[in-house]
Amino acid sequence: AIPVTQGLSLFADFPNQHPLALGLYSRYLGYTRGVDLLIVIGAQMPDEGHYIVTGPPPEGAEIVHVSMDSDLLAMSHATDISILADAGAMLDDLTAEIKRQASKREIRKIRDGRYQGVVDYVQSQRDRMLKRAKRSWEQTPITNARLSSELNDALDDDAIVVCESLFGVPEWFDFGPDAKLQIGPQPGEVLGWATGVATGAKLAQPKRQVVALSGDGAFMFSNNLWAIARYDAAILIVILNNRAYNMNRAFGWLKGGAQAELKKDMLTYLGDPDVDFTLLAKAHSIEGEVVNEPGELGAAIKRGIDSTRAGKAYLLDVHTERWGKGGELEWHPELSIEAMRQTT
């Protein structure tokens, strides 16, 4: 009856729809308040330096950190116990030791005393998340929750979903050992890898459905369309196109500063020019379509899946929401090299 939260990892290490799964670790995760023991298994310690999985660990909790990487142990926060070991071997040994110290009846009593409380808390949080998402379900631009939910429902149960650093996306999918396979997100320091990793996944598992989820900014870093077309990699490419490096602005502006105070985004707005990524796909002989309205999603996703089943890649350029502080703004500096030439 131990609640589990996902740390920074390339995969979903624990089924994210499990009744004990709290979701991605965050300083805003309410359940962690008052926790007396944190066991970090195979992941790096929650760290304030990362804007995806943020720290710090629960205040006052004793910390056990298990990792095969000695450099990670106690790197960002002091631990009470550091264990250099394989995570699976450690869990086997820990389970055996608990069973040695306590009878089945004692273990069952401990479990029964806390299991339902954890399950009820997790379910209440999921209900709140869905209720909040439903308020803007018909919104234009399309919400990440709506797009992710419809994709999850339409994809095969064993689909491979490659997800770049996209906020508010993985929690709407069913990931786990007996469900869809999640690859990503990583810390967010590198962009443009989703289509390349998806091509590798399709090469490794050619009979499984493979989806690449990328932001518009990341897609402009690198897109691998040439390789996808050249080698007949039947991948469904979905671009969450909010015309911004949204995560950079949203989390950066939380700290305040001149840009946030003036409400002037100097760097992250990408809507000028407003890129049509389906034309880029067309240049590589890959079909696709732009999706503007939430009511268009279901049919568009079906066309994309039908194309991949027929052996051809397909690209969906989905116009999605900008969220967080300053998300509604479109101001950006009007800089023109041509104007500079004419005035100098």
List the topology elements.
Blueprint: E1 4-6, E2 21-24, E3 37-41, E4 62-67, E5 81-84, H1 87-101, H2 104-134, H3 144-154, E6 160-163, E7 181-183, H4 194-204, E8 210-215, H5 216-221, H6 225-230, E9 236-241, H7 246-253, H8 258-262, H9 277-282, E10 287-291, H10 297-309, E11 314-319, H11 337-342
Parallel strand pairs: 1-2, 3-4, 4-5, 6-7, 6-8, 8-9, 9-11, 10-11
Helix pairs in contact: 3-10
What would your notes on this structure say?
- The termini are far apart.
- The longest helix has 31 residues, at 104-134.
- Helices cover 34% and strands 15% of the residues.
- The strands form 3 sheets. It has a 6-stranded parallel beta sheet, sandwiched between helices. Strands 3-4-5 form a 3-stranded parallel beta sheet, with no helix packed on it. The protein has a two-stranded parallel sheet with strand order 1-2.
- Helix 10 (297-309) links the parallel strand 10 (287-291) and strand 11 (314-319).
- The chain contains 11 helices and 11 strands.
- The protein is an alpha/beta fold and 344 residues long.
Mean pLDDT: 93
The share of residues in extended strands comes to 15-25%
> What Rg do the Cα atoms give?
22 Å
For the record, give the distance between the C-alpha atoms at the N and C termini, rounded to a whole number: 70 Å
Q: What multimeric state do the chains show? A: single chain
The helix content is 25-40%
Shape call: globular
Number of strand segments: 11
Sequence stretches where pLDDT stays below 50 over 5 or more residues: none
SSE sequence, one letter per element: EEEEEHHHEEHEHHEHHHEHEH
Annotation field: number of helices: 11
Instruction: Describe the main β-sheet briefly.
Output: 6 strands, parallel
